Structure formats: structure tokens, C-alpha cells
């Protein structure tokens, strides 16, 4: 049974993310200079875990092993600095790596090298799920086997699930695994250019599942949350963009907390006027009063932001 005081268990893979910034993407068979290179981590689950810790929630990250190489040491240090219990290190393992390239127009693409991630995740011990208050799981096609195992464990323990589709369609095996489960939230995203479709995408997810809420983020146009009886919209907030990697991840812990508790999502009046800097992601943005602990004050200027149009 669900343990209300237990941790939020996040199931995903973990990898080094090498972030490239380029002025623009080149044409085929051409090149372009790299303006900057930074290191971070992937995937969504570890970043969500770090954001939840910053909000004061107990968290347990279940992910693949990492290596004792330079990339693995960075990942382990990144997690430890954010009080996320580090994953297991195997000296003979190669740490998974993703290169994420973003241009000055804030579009991005990525290249993933994920050795042994699938086999590793399919063997992780899911015992912590039985004592969890909540399960967050990245529903990526590449780790589908681990996703199905995690969902089954959560259903046996009768704990709420936030299923992050990450912009991908809901796969048939996953849809079957969550069928009829009442303690479910589903989250995904659409490209900025498709922001007008956000409500329709959320509604379609509700029709295919028994989810209480479906949340769809739409980049600079904010996010929507749709339930069986409500439709809520949250505007985007001003931010100084360093890189579009992980840009939407802070919304996931916030949405899971608000929606599962049956509260309302933030409205414009909930967003503070001063700009803050997130201790987790080192980005500058307005912040919600509900998650004030994640932020420290800053003197960055305000920036115009966009709103999801009402229907």
C-alpha cells in the first residue's frame, strides 16, 4: 500500500549530457562552429529527482549503473551535489553519453550513446517502489521493458504514477499496462509551433487512459492540464536561456504535486514578479510561490513571455 511519507521514486536512465551551442545548424555536408560546450546530465528522471529534492521532497532514483570514467565521476558528483543518492558505479562500465546540440533559435537535436542501459534497467531492484509515496517514470521506447516493470510494481503497491511520455506517442504495451489504473497522471510535450494542439493532445491522452490529469507543456507558450472536469492553463515565464536541454523538467515535479493533491495549477497571480535563479538547473526565471525553496533571489531583468491562448 502507498506510504504517504515515503519517497518519490524516479525510474529512468542516467547519462552524461554534453551540451553544444551553435549559431545555427548546418546544411547537410556542411559544418558550423561550436560556440560553447557544457556538461550536464540526462535523462528527465534524474533532473526531476533533483528538482523534487530542492522542493523538500524525499526522493529515490532508480537508474542504470555508471562507469568509473571521467563522465561517470561527473554524473555522480552532479547527483551528490543535489542530494540525490548516487547510482551504482562499476569501474568496468562505460558511462552512457548524450550530445545535445542547440542553436541560437533555441531548437535542438541530440545523439545518444547508451551502452548497456536497456539490459541494466531491466535488472534494477524495484523494491523501493513498495514503500514509495509516488512513482515517476520516463516512458521512453528504448527502456520500455523497465517501464512496464515499474508500472506493474506501482500497481501492486497501489501508489500514484506520473508517466512522462517525453513527446512520444503512448505505446500500446504501456497503454495496456496502465489500463484502468485510477491513480495516474500523464505528462508529455508538444513543439512550440504546435502549441494550439496542446489541449487536444491532453484530451486524447485522457480518452486513451484512466488518468486523473493529462499535462502538456508547450515550451514558450506555457502548459495545460486537463482532467475529466477541468481545463487549466499556465503561462510561460521569463527566462534567460543558456541551453534548451532540460528546459521543461521543473514543471514535472510541480505538476505531480499540484494535480495529485487535487489542487489547482498556478495562475498568473501565483507567479512572483522578481526573477529568481534555480539552484537545480542554474536558470533565471520567475518562480511559483508554491516552490519557493527551489530558488534564490536575482536581479536579472524581466523578459516578455507568451501565454497559451484560451479557447
Automatic annotation (TrEMBL):
GO molecular function: kinase activity
InterPro entries: PfkB_dom (IPR011611), Ribokinase-like (IPR029056)
Pfam families per UniProt: PfkB (PF00294)
Keywords from the named record: Kinase, Transferase
Domain Carbohydrate kinase PfkB: 49-248
UniProt name for this protein: PfkB family carbohydrate kinase
Amino acid at each position: 500500500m502507498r506510504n504517504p511519507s515515503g519517497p518519490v521514486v524516479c525510474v529512468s536512465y542516467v547519462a552524461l549530457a554534453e551540451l553544444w551551442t551553435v549559431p545555427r545548424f548546418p546544411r547537410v555536408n556542411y559544418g558550423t562552429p561550436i560556440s560553447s560546450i557544457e556538461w550536464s546530465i540526462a535523462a528527465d528522471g534524474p533532473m526531476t529527482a533533483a528538482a523534487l529534492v530542492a522542493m523538500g521532497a524525499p526522493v529515490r532514483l532508480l537508474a542504470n549503473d555508471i562507469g568509473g570514467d571521467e563522465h561517470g565521476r561527473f554524473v555522480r558528483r552532479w547527483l551528490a551535489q543535489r542530494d540525490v543518492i548516487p547510482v551504482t558505479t562499476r569501474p568496468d562500465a562505460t558511462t552512457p553519453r548524450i550530445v545535445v546540440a542547440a542553436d541560437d533559435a533555441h531548437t535542438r537535436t541530440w545523439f545518444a550513446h547508451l551502452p548497456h542501459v536497456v539490459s541494466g534497467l531491466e535488472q534494477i531492484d524495484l523494491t523501493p517502489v513498495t514503500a514509495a509515496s509516488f512513482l515517476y517514470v520516463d516512458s521512453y521506447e528504448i527502456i520500455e521493458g523497465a517501464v512496464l516493470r515499474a508500472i506493474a510494481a506501482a500497481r501492486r503497491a497501489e501508489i500514484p504514477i506520473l508517466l512522462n511520455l517525453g513527446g512520444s506517442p503512448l505505446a500500446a504495451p504501456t497503454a495496456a499496462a496502465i489500463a484502468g489504473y485510477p491513480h495516474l497522471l500523464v505528462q508529455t510535450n508538444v513543439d512550440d509551433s504546435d502549441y494550439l494542439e496542446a489541449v487536444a493532445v491532453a484530451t486524447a491522452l485522457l480518452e486513451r487512459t484512466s488518468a486523473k490529469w493529462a499535462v502538456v507543456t508547450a515550451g514558450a507558450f506555457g502548459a495545460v492540464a486537463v482532467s475529466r472536469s477541468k481545463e487549466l492553463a499556465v503561462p510561460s515565464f521569463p527566462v534567460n536561456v543558456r541551453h534548451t536541454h532540460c528546459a521543461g523538467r521543473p514543471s514535472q515535479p510541480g505538476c505531480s504535486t499540484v494535480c495529485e493533491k487535487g489542487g489547482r495549477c498556478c495562475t498568473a497571480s501565483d507567479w512572483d514578479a522578481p526573477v529568481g535563479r534555480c539552484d537545480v538547473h542554474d536558470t533565471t526565471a520567475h518562480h511559483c510561490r508554491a516552490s519557493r525553496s527551489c530558488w534564490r533571489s536575482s536581479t536579472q531583468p524581466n523578459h516578455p513571455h507568451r501565454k497559451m491562448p484560451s479557447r
